Amino acid sequence: MKISNDMTMEEIITALAEKYNGDFNWSLIPETNNYYITELKKELGADNPLFQNSIRAIAKCESNDDVLYVLNGDIWRIYHLTYSANNSEEYPKYKEFSSIKAAAEYIQDRFLKEYF
With a threshold of 0.90, does the pTM exceed it? Predict the structure, then answer.
């Protein structure tokens, strides 16, 4: 599947699920679901400078605790949530991407290496 920056994450996740016959392990998070934003605030601390930006939880990996977020509409991060408020400074770990395409390609590559 050719991924482009013109696609939405909904289009990308749907296409990947179709390509891998429903075995794809990422699902979209409804825009009205604030659970993963609340969890990230708990883990990072609500006063973390990250939350001065607009932030939206986009998708969740069903095989681990990775969640894809978008900040200010153009910074893409996958956080590996710990579901704990007592994290050391190095947690939760994240990987940052400069585009939706880069984030989607990483998600697809990781799926192929680890689960398919």
Answer: yes
